[in-house]
Amino acid sequence: MKKLVESSGVEVAYKEVDVVTTGTFGAMCSSGAIINLGHADPPIKIQRAWLNDVEVSHTGAAVDLFVGATQMSETNPFEYGGGHVIEDLIAGKEIEVRATSYGTDCYPRTKLDTTITKDDLNQFYLLNFRNCYQRYVCATNSRDEIIYTYMGKLLPKFRNATYSGAGGLNPLMNDPDYETIGIGTRIFLGGGQGYIIGEGTQHDPTNRFGTLMVRGDCKQMSQEFIRGGAFTQYGTSMYVGMGIPIPILNEGLAKKTAVCDEEILTDIVDYGVPRRGRPKLGQVSYANLKSGEVTINDRTVKVSSLSSLKKARKIAAILKSWIEHGDFYLSVPAETLPTASVCNPMHQTSQVAFVSAVAHDAVTCTVDEDIKTVAQRIITKSVNHVVVVDKTGELKGIVTSWDLTRAVAEGKTQLADVITKKVYTTTPEETVEVASRKMAQHHISALPVLDHQNKVVGLISTEDIAKLRGR
C-alpha cells in the first residue's frame, strides 16, 4: 500500500485496494485467560487455586478461574508464570491443578488436586485488558547501574536502548481514528480468530497511545502466536500475536494505511528515573529504531526491539490469506472506540517521600586535601560523611569520621589511601524507601545524591530518614 500510494497516488490506491492487513507480535502484560473447570464430585467452591504452581489471579463463582500472564510461579518465579500456563494449555500439555476452599453446605469439598488439558475445559478464553499498543516509547537508562524493566535490561549511562512495536505495520497506526476498528471487529488473535471488545485500559488516543481490549477462543489458537515470556529480574509476561484487517472505505483510509516508519515518532525516555513522569530525552522515528542505532545526548547508542517484526509480517500475511480464501470475514464494528479519552493518573490519598525532599547539602572535599583538613571539616560541620568530588563536582569517593580515625591510628597521611571509591548512590527522584533499602542492603549509613550528569547534589543518611519517620 505504501509503495502504491507513493507511485500512483491515494486515488488510485483507494480504487485498487480493498483491504490492508496489519500485524504485531510482542509482550502484552495485561493478558490472561478465563478457564471453567467444570464441577468436581463432591463439588468445591474454589477460594484459592494454582495452575502448575501459578496462583490464579481471580476465582469467580465456584470453578471459574482467571489466570493472569504476569502472575509468577511460587516455585519458579521470574522464569515461569501465567503466560507460560496459557501457552502450555494451548500446546495441549497437561497442567496440574491445586485448589482449596472453606467448604459450604452445597460445596463441601475443601481440597482439590487434579490435572487438566484444554480438552477438559468447558471454556478457555483469552481475555486481554490492554493489547496492541499504538506505539511504544524508546527506553534508556541514565543511572550508573543496570536496571531491569518491562522494557528489558537497560545498561548504565545510556549504553543501550530498547523499544517495541511494529511501527508502520501496527494495526492502530493504520487506522488511528478508529474508522474501521471498534467493538465487534473480528481480528487475528493468537493464531485463531477473536474480537475487539472495547478500548484497552489506559487508552490514550489523544497522545497516539491507543490500546485495545480483546477476547478469543484459546482452543483455536496456536503456540506459535501465544508464548509465555520472562523478563530478567522483572517478571513474567506473555507474547501475543494480533492482526487487524483495515477495509479501505475511502481515500482517507488509503492515505492512512500508507503510513511509513519515518512518519511515526516516539519519545526517548529515561527509565533510570523511577517516576511516573520520566524525563524525555528527545524524539526518534521507528525508521531510526529499526536501523539499530539512535542518538542520545550526541552519542550513537545501539537500540534493540523487544517484539518480533518477522512474526508481525507473518501475521499480516496469514490474515491476508484467510481473507482471500474466504476463511475470514470482515465485520462492521457495533460501536466505535473513543478518540478523545484521556488516561488519568492514580488518585492518591497520601504522598510518597522522595530523596529530593529529605536530602541535605553534602559536605565535600577533593582527593588532594590532607587528612587533617578533612577531619577538621567533619568537626566544624558536625557531620559523619564527607563526599569526595573533583573540580567539576563529579563523585570520586566518600570518607567517614570512622575512616579518618582508623587512618590516624594506622599512621596514614594521604586521603587517597583512606577514601572509599566504590560508592553506592541515589538520585533526587528515588523514593526514600528505595534509598533506605539500599543502605540496609549494603550496611552503610549514607548515600551521595547525584544528578543525571553524575554531579553531587546532596547526601541522604539514616539520620535524615529517622527524622522523617519521627515527624
Outline of this structure?
With 471 residues, the chain is of the alpha+beta class. Helices cover 21% and strands 31% of the residues.
Properties at a glance:
471 residues, alpha+beta, 10-stranded antiparallel beta sheet, 4-stranded antiparallel beta sheet, 12 helices
How would you describe what is shown here?
This protein is 21% helix and 31% strand. By secondary structure, it is α+β, with helices and mostly antiparallel strands. Strands 2, 3, 6, 7, 10, 16, 17, 18, 19 and 20 form a 10-stranded antiparallel β-sheet that branches. A hairpin with a 2-residue loop joins strand 16 and strand 17 (192-199). Helix 1 (2-8) packs across helix 2 (10-16). The longest helix is centred in the last third of the chain and has 16 residues, at 309-324. The protein starts with a helix and ends with a helix.
